[in-house]
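Need the bound structure for iron/sulfur cluster, inputs here:
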Amino acid sequence: MRVTEIQRFCMHDGPGVRTTVFFKGCPLRCRWCHNPETQSASQQILYDAARCIGCGACAAACPVGAHRVGADGHVYDRTECTACALCAAACPTGALFQAMREMTEEEVLAVVERDRAFYGEEGGVTLSGGEPMAQPEAALRLLRMCKDRGIGTAVETCGCFDPAYVPALAEAADLLLWDFKDGDDARHRENTGVSGLPLMRALIEADARGAQSVLRCILLRGVNTEEAHYLAIAELWSKLRHCRYAELLPYHPYGGAKRRLLGEADDGREDWIPTPEELERARDHLAARGVRVRDLGR
Ligand code: SF4
Ligand code: SF4
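Answer from helper R.:
Posting the output first, comments after.
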């Protein structure tokens, strides 16, 4: 499995206390992504200049001369970098670090099992990312291993994966945390790179197979904070029999700082953060149409 990290004691990735496994690789390119280091399925090196002490260990370790440390400070030329990660291994301060770890399902399970005493009836493991179902065999095997051990399973998905895996996913996951990003499909394509229609169909199919779900709806001010989008959420909700509630997730520009660590421009947008009034309006629109809403922005 290609993972970026495993976070323990998570409280917002499904019910109860959870261990969240972040998969690396996603078929979407959402402009608002808050985990941009999970988009590419390949290894990447993150560099945090604030932690660099200018020791030059990276320059000594790099076989292609991608690091230079001199009077003008530390320069990391990513055009030369092959992501071999030798510099990250040599860096004494953690200023350079790898985005990806390759682990077996057994190794991930061992981490998940450490906290099983805290999961109780509701908690367990959540597969997130990135898109966990972009590595479908590994994701499903890990889910089944957890289920066999009595550990609750949830999967956070954008729905963009081979639909042939929907039945197996519906069976292996106790709960699907399903993103619904935009009811306007032209805008969905423009902002994510793909149509949202097949993603919605996959959720409807999973629901028909009895899969429990939560609709996760990111709200971006001036992008999808409009009545037509709320109507689309309500329409999708009306087609689902096993959806527990819709969760409103106000955009936050976290991803911008991570883009900087990847050597890219900070694309965080303060103007996309919805106001409390907009969140209230969204909540009221949905509630008026019979959608059960939970609002993390409250
Ligand atoms: S990842 Fe490898 S090639 Fe890239 S800068 Fe580090 S040592 Fe050099
Ligand atoms: S090894 Fe780490 S601390 Fe030393 S110069 Fe390179 S990035 Fe900075």
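Comments: Residues 2-41+100-295 form a domain with the TIM Barrel fold (CATH 3.20.20.70). The chain has eleven helices and 13 strands.
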